[in-house]
Specification:
This protein is an alpha/beta fold. α3 crosses α4 and α11 packs across α12. It is globular and about 75 Å long. The protein starts with a helix and ends in a 10-residue tail after the last helix. The structure holds adenosine-5'-monophosphate-propyl ester. The site of adenosine-5'-monophosphate-propyl ester has 22 residues, from α12, β20, β24 and β25.
């Protein structure tokens, strides 16, 4: 167990604070306690009712077809268009003038409001423009963009056409973009010249050019939004300015209703092997799951709430709880382009004050950063509009939970700690803000209609007060349908450990009341600032450097980022100087190499050059022991090592050159 997990276990045995829902919120809550029983008595009827909140072309014949498990079909025979549900229907209902997105650029005074009518105009034009560029239903479109409204427009235009999008986080490298474009065979990439980050323009188009060069003749067009005005290389014929093709296209677009199971998007995420997995989400079930949970967990009142989810659209949270869930519910929301400290550390709170944000959703890593910056920063702003706070991405430590509630939520706003994954598409475990008395550090209970359990190695449900593996016992509407092009890997990864159970990869514990505490990953996946990274993927990146012979990566507990990437590297002999020592600047070179291969988020915090790695007799690297070193602990049991002296050699290197920032 890591220190983080041990901490969580200690917390849950001593934690006796309870935060009851505020009386007014409880009285007026969208979802009341009876929902649990109603869903338990007829799960499918419960989800059918949630689906009825949406507009369908044709109503489904069957709620769930699980006959070919684990391949689920939801709302079988139904037809629906996600873009119509997120845009057209609000305009048709007379809410065209309602603001959909208060967009805030990083440079101050650079902001724009888009109403639902504006969105309809732009999404329709973009759909026509993409059609003109040859995009047809079923074609894949990659999106590599900063946080500007056009990213939502691009996603919704793809959804309208039935062309699955794959959004690649703008912080990923050209190589990462190329591998995703290749895997899902995207024929168009939508991007921008750049975006603003940390007070300066940061370029995106050069990475796209580099990626396209690596993908043969797959990519037919690159559509470029002009955001920063930076100079860009231009390939006549292939490259198109957004303003040339979208702004001039017709604002009328007749949408087709797609099958409920039509692919909506592919989102790549790290797994335990080097190759990212393309998580496939389809339309009807996904939109049902995201829109219902967004309405229930955040107690959304579309007429009065101003919602802000700080995630980047390049991650699943940006898909489910910035684009599809909120827009399907007709929400007014804030979208911010930049970093929280540009140009000052109170920027987020300034935005909350300016727009009167009522519901705020962020990640524990951000909360811990604000704690470090000091209570006086949020205290300078009027945050009294906030009535509900959400957390996602990693376990929230009780101190951060309480700080968040007190300093951002005026000690009254409930905190909903929401557990879910790229794969689950929607929130599965969370308090209901009008029902649940929250415990700091616990995600509490499965939502109505969701069957979560914690099991032991034999798949037996553990009693209250014990820990085990988090599993799902029944399918849910927004669940992933498969991995893009790899049904077998889908089965092997999630469904093979125990018959009939979805294995999430997380450890969890039930406390004495049966409430759930998440304990982090139990596999070789790391969670750095709420972002998923694979140890193997970073090891492969390190080994691809000509001076590296072998590498092992572990996630070490980190106060700020939850976990941090720590790498142990064996160099090739040719890389060593005459004195047998590693060149001085090599560590920085290796960190930059990982950044180039994957992206800045994967850059190791620490790299240790070691002479050997601890391996079992069958050659498996014992990362557990390396983690002990990285977390400055007494090294655990070494008896299964092929050579038990290896750890002494590695520990002897602890003072050797390394890099931390
Ligand atoms: O380990 C869990 C952690 O993040 C993983 C999913 O990562 P990703 O697919 O990138 O999605 C992140 C945003 C939904 C999970 O397996 N995780 C996510 N939310 C929580 C969490 N761990 C504890 N508490 C949470 N609320």
């Amino acid at each position: 167990m890591t220190e983080q997990k041990t901490d969580a276990l200690a917390n849950l045995s001593t934690e006796d604070r309870r935060f009851e829902p505020p009386a007014d919120l409880a009285a007026d809550a969208n979802v009341k306690a009876e929902a649990y029983d109603r869903a338990a008595s007829d799960r499918e009827a419960f989800w059918a009712e949630a689906a009825e909140r949406l507009d369908w072309g044709r109503t489904w014949d069957q709620v769930l077809d699980w006959s070919d498990a684990p391949f689920a079909k939801w709302f079988v025979g139904g037809t629906i268009n996600a873009s119509v549900n997120c845009v057209d229907r609000h305009v048709e209902a007379g809410r065209g003038d309602k603001v959909a997105i208060h967009w805030v650029g990083e440079p101050e005074d650079d902001s724009r409001d888009l109403t639902y009518a504006d969105l309809l105009d732009q999404v329709s034009r973009a759909a026509n423009a993409l059609t003109e560029l040859g995009v047809k239903k079923g074609d894949r479109v990659a999106i590599y963009m900063p946080m500007i409204p056009e990213v939502a427009v691009a996603m919704l235009a793809c959804a309208r056409l039935g062309a699955p999008h794959t959004v690649v986080f703008g912080g990923f490298s050209a190589d990462a973009l190329a591998s995703r474009v290749t895997d899902c065979e995207a024929k168009v990439i939508i991007t921008a010249d750049g975006g603003y980050r940390r007070g300066a323009p940061s370029a995106l188009k050069p990475a796209v050019d580099e990626a396209v060069a690596k993908t043969g003749d797959l990519v037919e067009h690159v559509v470029v939004v002009r955001r920063t005005g930076q100079d860009v290389e231009w390939d006549e014929g292939r490259d198109k300015w957004w303003h040339d093709v979208v702004d001039t296209a017709s604002p009328d677009h007749e949408p087709e209703m797609h099958d409920s199971e039509h692919p909506l998007y592919v989102m790549y995420t790290s797994g335990t092997t080097g190759k990212p997995k393309g998580i496939l989400h389809t339309t009807g079930g996904y939109l049902t799951g995201t829109s219902w949970t967004h309405w229930a967990v955040f107690d959304l009142k579309p007429e009065t709430d101003v919602y802000w989810c700080t995630a980047d659209v390049g991650w699943v949270t940006g898909h489910s709880y910035m684009v599809y869930g909120p827009l399907a519910n007709g929400t007014t929301q804030v979208m911010y382009e930049g970093t929280p400290d540009s140009p000052h550390k109170g920027r987020w709170w300034e935005i909350v004050e300016k727009y009167g944000v009522t519901i705020f959703y962020t990640a524990p890593t951000a909360i811990r950063t604000f704690m470090k910056w000091g209570d006086d920063i949020p205290a300078k702003f009027d945050l009294s509009s906030i009535r509900l706070l959400g957390s996602v991405g990693e376990p929230i430590n009780p101190e951060a939970y309480v700080w968040y509630r007190e300093n951002i939520g005026a000690s009254t706003a409930p905190v909903v700690d929401t557990w879910w994954q790229t794969e689950t598409g929607q929130i599965l475990i969370s308090p209901l803000p009008g029902v649940t008395a929250g415990k700091p550090g616990s995600a509490m209970k499965a939502l109505p209609g969701i069957e979560v359990d914690v099991v032991n190695d034999e798949a037996e449900s553990v009693p209250n007060g014990s820990g085990g593996y988090l599993v799902l016992r029944e399918p849910w509407p927004a669940m992933l349908r498969t991995l893009w092009g790899d049904d077998q890997r889908f089965k092997d990864t999630y469904w093979s450990r125990w018959e009939g159970l979805y294995f999430a990869g997380d450890g969890a514990k039930k406390d004495e009341d049966g409430d759930i505490w998440l304990l982090g990953r139990v596999d070789d996946v790391m969670n750095v600032s709420g972002h998923r990274l694979s140890t193997t993927e970073i090891e492969s990146a390190l080994v691809s450097h000509p001076k590296v012979a072998e590498a092992a990566v572990v996630g070490a507990a980190d106060e700020m980022t939850g976990q941090a990437v720590c790498a142990f590297v064996i160099l090739r002999e040719s890389a060593l100087g005459d004195d047998g020592a590693a060149p001085e600047d090599l560590i920085e070179e290796l960190r930059k190499h990982v950044q180039k291969e994957i992206g800045a988020i994967a850059k190791p915090r620490q790299i240790m050059i070691v002479p050997e790695l601890p391996k079992t007799r069958s050659g498996k690297i014992m990362r557990r022991l390396l983690k002990d070193v990285a977390e400055h602990r007494e090294v655990g049991d070494v008896t299964t090592l092929a050579d038990s002296t290896v750890m002494d050699l590695i520990k002897g290197k602890e003072g050797a050159p390394s890099s931390e920032d």
